[in-house]
Amino acid sequence: MVNEIVQGIDDDSTNSLSDKELLNLSIKIEQDANEAKTQGSKDNQTEWTLPGHLKKPDKAREILWKGHLTQFGFSKLKGFQRDAIQAVELGRDTVIIQPTATGESIYYQLPALFEKGSVTVVLCPTISLINSPIESLKNHDINAASVGPVSGGSSLQSTDVADKSSLPPILFITPEYFDKKLKNELVAMEENIKLLVLDEVHKMFDRSSNFRACYDTFKSVKDEFKNTPIMALTATLNDSQLGDLCKNYLRRPVLIRSRVNKRNVKINIENYETVHKKSGKEKWKNVALYIVKTVQSDYAIIYMDFRKDVELLVDSIKEAGYRT
Questions:
Q1: Would you report the helix, strand and coil content of the chain in percent, each value rounded to 5?
Q2: Integer Cα distance of 132 and 136 in angstroms
Q3: What is the CATH number of domain 51-257?
Q4: pTM of the prediction?
Q5: Gyration radius of the chain's alpha carbons
Q6: Which of 302, 229, 311, 227 has its CA nearest to residue 272?
Q7: What is the distance between the terminal CA atoms of the chain, rounded to a whole angstrom?
Q8: Sequence ranges of the domains in the chain
Q9: Residues 262-295: tens digit of each pLDDT
């Protein structure tokens, strides 16, 4: 152990040291390394704060929250959900990194019901992420709408936003429409905005061919909406992206992050190839046979890039004898 720790120290400087002196030196090196690590952690935390530093909600407030929560069919909040909602009520920016299907939508949907006449603006990168929650909210008799070129659901025109009395408590917009068409109108009515939500915020750091240039303008949002808390939601964000988000897009936010270890779920990563010379569902025949053989009577979730390929693969899996 001593030799491992002092490895790299000049040999001439250690030849004359006794074993005890070497041990003391190794302990000192280890302490210095731990201090450096701790300091690095503190430096990171200057960009955000943790929910343990928040003032706890009083009992009356929690009773009010639970009353609204029944509209969603729930009777109790999880601890991290309570932290997120309290951060919003305190006017704090938040970053929420939670696995999919852990109830992340309640973070902004519940606070949106607390004050009549206020609106929570949610920026979603895809139409499906807009239509699905609108439909779900309406099933719970909660008014929600989209603004801009979004199919399905209840859609308002941008001119309707100026009529504050007609606004629902939750309003969904695509990033492009927000940036190019609606931002100035929303800034003018900021006193009525409860919360600004950046959904799937990891997309802001995806510099692939599908990167959306409007995300570059989001650095100014915290200055344009000076009195409106901003919530960033995602299931995945690396440390570098998190630091960039907290420093350049938000105002020392509250970080709420957890990891889920599902012992009943395993991930298989396998090489496969499609039959390139064939078209249609025949292209995915080899993949379908492999999936059916691997999954057998269990369940599987398959992620693919394109809807057309999903449809072709589903047809191939059905022909291979598996129910999808």
A1: 50, 10, 40
A2: 6
A3: 3.40.50.300
A4: 0.70
A5: 26
A6: 302
A7: 55
A8: 2-45, 51-257, 263-324
A9: 666 777 776 666 655 556 666 788 888 888 888 8
- Classified as helix, coil or strand, 56 is coil
User: Chain-centre distance of CA 49, in angstroms?
Assistant: 17
The token pair at 211 is 């990167």
Q: Find all residues with CB under 8 Å of 129, minimum gap 6, and list them.
A: 199, 200
Cβ proximity of 201 and 234 under 8 Å? yes
User: What tokens does 163 get?
Assistant: 């009529």
Give residue for tokens 């100026």.
Answer: 162
**CA dist 106 to 76, 81, 159, 210, Å?**
12, 7, 28, 29
pLDDT per residue over 76-91, tens digit each? 898 889 999 999 999 9
On whether the CB atoms of residues 80 and 98 are closer than 8 A, the answer is yes
- What is the SS3 assignment for 256? strand
Q: Determine contact, residues 66/106, Cβ cutoff 8 Å.
A: no
